[in-house]
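does this look right to u?? zinc ion version
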Amino acid sequence: MMKSWSDLDYQPTVSRIITNSLERNRIAHAYLLDGMKGTGKKEVSYLFAKSLLCRERRGVDPCQSCSNCKRIDSRNHPDVHVLEPDGNSIKKQQIQFLQEEFTKTGLESKRKIYIIEHADKMTTNAANSLLKFLEEPNQETFAFLLTENVHQMLNTIISRCQPLSFSALTSLRLVDKLVEEGIPMPLARTASHLTNSLEEAVELCRDDWFALARSLVIKLYEALFGRQQQALLFIQEKWMPHFQERKQLEIGLDLMLFIYKDMLYAQLERQEQLVFVDEKEQIEKFALQTTQQRVTRHLSYILQSKSRLASNVNPHLLMEQLALNLQEGY
Ligand SMILES: [Zn+2]
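got this back:
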């Protein structure tokens, strides 16, 4: 959880805009937080709410221990309203309910805050209701609109909000965050190559399926350097039962791609880029037994398999064919 604005160093622009406005006490009435899933929008809106309502604020940072901070953390502060899509959309009634709430004075202080998640999912009627609201801002009302699809929002709404654009996490930053969450480094590095989203990466790393998938990839990779029959047997007995769904096999092939790329990195002496850091020695050993040209060709076999997977091929045959290609004799 973000404790202070300095924790937002991975979104420097957003952090600067917010801390400046808190320092000068010039807060906009509406902010539009846009960016991919997992880039920190929700955490930022809650931290902002705390900075605005905290009873013991220290500089720009909330104290995290007063009753306001605590109730915002536990999502039951009476003056902080969170709106999410009801089904597929945010409906006019939801916005109207919010407006009624806001005509009452803040229950505890004068300030009231609303956070609208997936703001792009507002129906046109809902958006128009909100617009009226944004046009006549109450002195002490603050809105945070969160979206992953800013292009689907009405320009009239966008133009009334101060934009806060969240950039995708760099893969290094994502690995740091995952390790902070207690995820082992090798797993974190692997996940960071599959997604830019912290949320998705955490979910992946906490799923036992993923850790096992990763170790099966290492085993298949090793088997491919051994006897042909052994690799085919491994695919039949261990690989196929684990990668049953197409989506899963796609991840399996992505991981295969990473481990073959690692061989290329080892050949180029760029070990700092390895994804399978825990297999460094083995990868270096195999890298010596082959050529860059050959690894590059193998990478293209894996890519071809990935695109064939998109069409309706038999996954087992696809894997067998890939194994034969990767075991070519020269
Ligand atoms: Zn506080």
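The chain has a mean pLDDT of 92. idk if thats expected tbh
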